[in-house]
Amino acid sequence: MGMKWVHTLVLVLIFGLTACGGDTAPQDVSTDSGGDVQVSDADAQDNTVSDPGTPDPGCIPQCENKDCGPNQCGGLCGLCAPNSTCTPEGICEEVVITPPDPQVCSGNTKLGEKQNFGGACCYTAAGHPQNPNCVWYAPDYGEGECIDNECGSGYCASAAYCSKGCSIYKDELNNATGEGGFDGVNDEDAINECEGAVDGPFGTNFQCVNLRPVTQNILAFCRPGTTFEPCENSMDCPIGESCQLIYISGGTSARCMTIEKDSVAGMEECNSDPNSGPITSCQGPFCFGSGCVDLCADDSDCITDTCVEGACAKTGAACTTDTECSAWRCEELTPYSDSDFTDDFCQPRDCAKAEDCVDPDWFCRPFWNGAETVEEVAFSPACRRLEEGAVGYGEACGEEGDGTGLPPCAWAGGCIDNYCSGPCTSDADCGEGAECLLGAEWNIDVDDNDSVDTTLNVDLCQKWPHDGELQDCSTDADCPADHHCRYRVKANGEGSERVWAVEYKCRKNKEEVGFGEICGGSDGPACKSDLCLVPSGNGNADAMCTETCTSAADCPETVEFDGFTWKTLCLSFNVNGQNTLDPIDDIFVPYCWRTSSIGSVEPCDAEKKCSDSKEYCRAAIIAGNVDEAVNVDHICIDSSEGLDAFPIGVLGDPCTTWSECNGRICLPDASGNRYCSELCSTDDGCTNPAGLNLKCTENLLLERPDPSLSGWTQRCVLQETCLSCDSDQDCGGDHVCVNDGGLGALADFRCGAPCIEDADCTEPDTTCQQDIGPTGAATGKNACLPASCGL
């Protein structure tokens, strides 16, 4: 008896360790121990009864009306049977273990609380007392051991029912047709080891199904169903079964299987995540965010609304077939990332605007396509069910805590100025009084490494309140009474040719604050210009409402903010990246910003020098659209702004960081040290006490595809052979930056005098060396360099 019990235990443990939580092929298992199983004294169950003790001859045992427990004389009145327990009164009571309800998944894993074959198993929520957060995305889920532990057999199939291994005794007939040939299912007239299931979520009718091809050794498990007939959709299946996916005979196949009790039909709402609410299972193979996904033969299997007498039942729109009224369609899908299995499934329609979903119970929700490369990333909206209580696009909406009491927008990110905004490609997609404008810019992490790989623009239909004809503007002064000048971003073109640009239009005032006032936050007022900004690197500071400008002359001379008097200057704010991380085509909006009143804020464009030693000449970029020239204002401002002390390092002094330099620039030299730099207009402006060979060199501030539109300034840069560099502007004067190393990680860029041949190189021990690009091809640029730099 003991040896037989040990054999059984080995089988159970092996299935528990190797079976998967989903309906996929488990690993090979073997019960061959290589010989007889030996039971040691330590492992054997001890069924002997110990000596209850010899009473003290002078003590009278107190055991009247007692079966068990202490006799008050150092002994026992008796022992209870193994299936009983002793009460405090000394009575043996039988322990009754109530088996779990096979149709209700408790998620428990304790002995006596596990489900039997056929009983319910499931993912569990984070707060589960015995089996917390046993769900596929949890860090400790692993291969599904926690969900398998809910079953006495050690195997939970499809996160739904407890299964077990079985034997294929005969597979000579196709159970669905009766014709000869194997079908991967144990024949109906053969011994069925899958009988005896408890009445769980899939009933009691289970068959033994072979996971492996007929050419390999059998590996079989019990699955719920009858004949497992191949199917295209659930109409091909008998009553009580639906078309589902099963791994059988070495591959995934669409077969008729038992429908789970209390599950919902295709296109209905479902939930497989216990941390998001109660589990709602599907009759078909998948529960996606869009709802239950069924297998299908054509669009007629995927109907959310019907065509009745030439009109869609929900909208009254003209139609000839049900498919014209439905928000879903039948489309090919490869559902598994690790398999090339492909079939047709009911899925929500793709859409570009609200009307594309046809059915008013569905809306066009913005998505990106989930591409695996940056080049393939695209905006890919699709139809989703309208949640109860939410309003559709074009209707008045509100957000939690905004005090309006208005219902939420269909898409949570689309409630803009209490207008429910939906996706669009042009103004024609929007309702009366609305325009297609940039509504959001998404940061996309393609490879899930917590870094942004690209961006994606989301255009939405939005209201732009105004009286009379919509007017262009540059400042508030250009707008009629009760209006202000505000920027917005609008696109032109389609597909890869789509380009976004900033424009300025007069917009009607509402309860918004103006320049120099605190704005934003959870309960702060909105800013009229939509430019509610905080200082760079100081997210804890109060946000200040700004206004647009074309130069510093457009800005107020001073502003009172945060208890101080400030002067102002005109800077630029990046408002869009054109769906790339390359700044060359970014869009900017110039805005007025505060700066220390210690600085004169006088122009320094000519010499790029300031007369006061406490000031430095700053290059302020004023940029707009990619096809507009970048202007650069040079202004004298406080050199200590944002610092605890005035920087004392002058041009040419050694430094470790920019904050030590009066010109607020610290550049590297060829020996690994650094020196203070500043802006300049000529080489004479780079004369320095340290005697460094500094040259006034062009510095690119903002590049544009058309070089003539780029923004430039000049700064003093050390002219030194072998200086490390990234581009020519890192090399002083006319020196150029070339690759003096190899390809890829072996590239080593160094500065040198330009040349055509060796005779052009006047510095000792240098020759004219050819620059190579990333592919090894010559770039046409040459520099005078020694045989090696820094080796």
Layout of helices and strands, plus pairs?
Blueprint: H1 2-18, E1 84-86, E2 92-94, H2 145-148, E3 156-157, E4 161-162, E5 165-166, E6 206-210, E7 220-224, E8 241-248, E9 251-258, E10 286-288, E11 291-293, E12 307-308, E13 311-312, E14 328-333, E15 343-348, E16 362-365, E17 382-385, E18 415-416, E19 419-420, E20 434-444, E21 454-463, E22 483-492, E23 499-508, E24 512-513, E25 518-519, E26 526-527, E27 532-533, E28 543-545, E29 558-561, E30 564-576, E31 587-596, E32 615-622, E33 631-638, E34 665-668, E35 674-677, E36 694-702, E37 711-718, E38 736-739, E39 749-754, E40 767-772, E41 778-785
Parallel strand pairs: 24-26
Antiparallel strand pairs: 1-2, 3-4, 5-7, 6-7, 8-9, 10-11, 12-13, 14-15, 16-17, 18-19, 20-21, 22-23, 25-28, 27-28, 29-30, 30-31, 32-33, 34-35, 36-37, 38-39, 39-41, 40-41
Structure description:
Among the domains are: 463-632, no CATH class; 719-791, no CATH class. The longest helix has 17 residues, at 2-18. The strands form 18 sheets. A four-stranded antiparallel β-sheet has the order 38-39-41-40, with no helix packed on it. Strands 5-7-6 form a three-stranded antiparallel β-sheet, with no helix packed on it. The chain is elongated, with a radius of gyration of 38 Å. It is mainly β. The protein is built from two helices and 41 strands. Residues 1-55 have low confidence and may be disordered. A hairpin with a 2-residue loop joins strand 10 (286-288) and strand 11.
